[in-house]
Amino acid sequence: MVDAANRRYSQGEDKVEAVIAAARSRLVPIAMTSLATIVGLVPTALGLEAGTESNQPLALAVVGGLSSSTLLSLFLVPVMFLFFARRPPKPANPSAVATSPSLG
């Protein structure tokens, strides 16, 4: 998400527009991956199946961690991008770009 926003921003797009477009493009993949894992682990985390008592603490940790990290990556990362994004410095003299001498 940060890479996509950074590319758009460095190409001249507004900072807010760049981060919104990047967040929109990554929302579905992030949400679907997290949701599939969380839904798959809920029965184990709640102890609904017989014999899952030993795996219940692990499932609870994974569900909690994945839920919180999904929320952080969808909301906190774009906000932090808005605070820290800087455009790359433009060369002072564009005509003075170094060229390699010809070899022949």
Write up this protein:
The chain has 104 residues and is an all-alpha fold. The protein has three helices and no strands. Helix 1 packs antiparallel against helix 2 (15-46). It is rod-shaped, with a radius of gyration of 22 Å. 8% of the residues are buried.
- pLDDT < 50 stretches: none
Structural class: mainly alpha
**Pattern of helices and strands:** HHH
Main sheet properties: none
Mean pLDDT, nearest integer? 84
Distance between the termini: 46 Å
Q: Count the helices. How many?
A: 3
**Alpha carbon gyration radius:** 22 Å
Number of strands: 0
Overall 3D form: rod-shaped
Content of β-strand? under 5%
Helix content estimate? 55-70%
Q: Concise description?
A:
The chain is mainly α and about 100 residues long. Helix content is about 65%, strand content about 0%.
List keywords for this structure.
0% strand, mainly alpha, 104 residues, 3 helices, single chain, 67% helix
Strand-helix topology:
Elements (H helix, E strand, L loop, with lengths): L1 H9 L4 H32 L9 H29 L20
